[in-house]
Amino acid sequence: MKIKILGAGSIGNHLAQASRRMGWSVVVIDNDPKALERMKNEIYPKRYGSWDASIQLFRAGDEPKGGFDIIAIGTPPDTHLKLALAAIEEEPKLLHIEKPLCTPDLAGVGEFIEAKEKHSRVMVTVGYDHVVSEAMEAVTDLIKKGLFGDILTIDVEFREHWRGFFAAHPWLSGPQDSYLGFWKRGGGAGGEHSHALHLWQYFANVLKWGPIVRAEAMFDMRNEKGALHDQLAIFNLETKKRKIGRVVQDVITLPVRKWARLQGDQGFIEWHCNGVPEGDLIRYQVKESAPVEKIFPKKRPDDFYREVLHYDKLLSGEIPPENSPLSFERGVEIMKILNKTYFQD
Q1: What's residue 163's pLDDT?
Q2: Is the pLDDT at 345 greater than 60, yes or no?
Q3: pLDDT tens-digit profile of 200-230?
Q4: Treating both helix axes as pointing N-terminal to C-terminal, what angle do 328-342 and 195-206 enclose, rounded to 10 degrees?
């Protein structure tokens, strides 16, 4: 399997290492030679122990084109669709676009959909990796068994101070130095932590609640050092079957809380991302029985390893493309929610 990764930043490093764990051939492209040097000499060896000399690095414009099974776009959100338009012309088997798919104004979405229809053999995904984690798979299996009766509501929170992001990106002095500080570029709490919206949508699909048809939101906006972003975003959601729930996303909470709870009339189940030092935790209770806790050991690179494992199953036919929670269509729906709520009167 051959993968080409656009972007030598944090995501590019994670995807490269996960792909090498799969034994794949990896090429990484960036338009900044300093980013390529930083990947080789700092980020990759610091995170994973040593540099992998089999990874090929190219400056944008000098990279090989064509013949790749997967092309992955791991650049800032406001560059995604422009790069995706060029990448899909190479006709990889799968095109991965990191989350969020695009900017909240949906610029370029229509044009890319036309290109996607033209290149219909290319599977297109959006990188909401948490939804394919081992713990989430266990949560899904338990929900499908109907242990908790009729699910009444879903709550999801991704509340994480972004100092962790900047610790992983020491070349940035703060949100004003990247897309993260600008909600219109796909940053802020709404875009960066849209994992939470995506998880809520995922559970609604599992439960056959129908699509999200109504979204109301409040944003706590901050204008600091030239950056303009939402530090807190709160969403109330309703599906076609009139099921409701809540999503909270922020960049101010410490310790981090990445959590989901499905409350049924016969019990509940919770997912806690990194809920214990060893990794993810799920907790559930059925009726009056004792609560059950299960730990799923992992480290951060394992999130991306699970993602490329999912891609391997998609390409082998083990998982039909229409069954993938990482589908392009689901990513578009998340951006439509952000579009509607950011630009609401």
Answers
A1: 82
A2: no
A3: 999 999 999 999 999 999 999 999 889 999 9
A4: 120
Return the pLDDT at 177. Answer: 86
How many CB atoms are closer than 10 A to CB 20? Answer: 18
Burial 327-337 (b: 16+ CB within 10 A, else e): bbebbbbbbeb
Bridge pairing between strands 25-30 and 2-6: parallel
Residue type at 115 in one-letter notation: A
Show me where the domains of the chain are located: 2-126, 130-298
User: Of 218, 178, 205, which is closest to residue 326 (Cα–Cα)?
Assistant: 205
Fold of the 2-126 domain: Rossmann fold (3.40.50)
pLDDT in the model for residue 72: 98
Please state, for a pLDDT cut of 90, what percent of the chain lies above it: 94
* Residue in the structure block whose two tokens are 């494992």: 309
Q: Which of 46, 45, 10 is nearest to 28 (CA)?
A: 10
pLDDT, tens digit (0-9, with 9 covering 90-100), for 67-125? 999 999 999 999 999 999 999 999 999 999 999 999 999 999 999 999 999 999 999 99
Domain with residues 130-298, CATH architecture: 2-Layer Sandwich (3.30)
What's 43's DSSP letter? I
Helices (H), the chain: 10-21, 33-38, 44-48, 80-88, 109-118, 134-144, 163-168, 188-192, 195-206, 300-316, 328-342
HSE of 298, CA atoms in CB hemisphere, 13 A: 22
Contact 131, 199 (CB under 8 A): yes
Q: Which two tokens stand for residue 268?
A: 């509940």
From the CB of residue 172, how many other CB atoms can be counted at a distance below 10 Å?
15
β-pairing verdict for 257-264 and 151-159 = antiparallel
Measure the CA–CA gap between 157 and 127, rounded to whole angstroms.
18
Question: pLDDT tens for residues 142-196?
Answer: 999 999 999 999 999 999 998 877 777 777 778 898 899 999 999 999 999 999 9
Contacts of 178 (CB under 8 A, 6+ apart): 76, 169, 172, 187
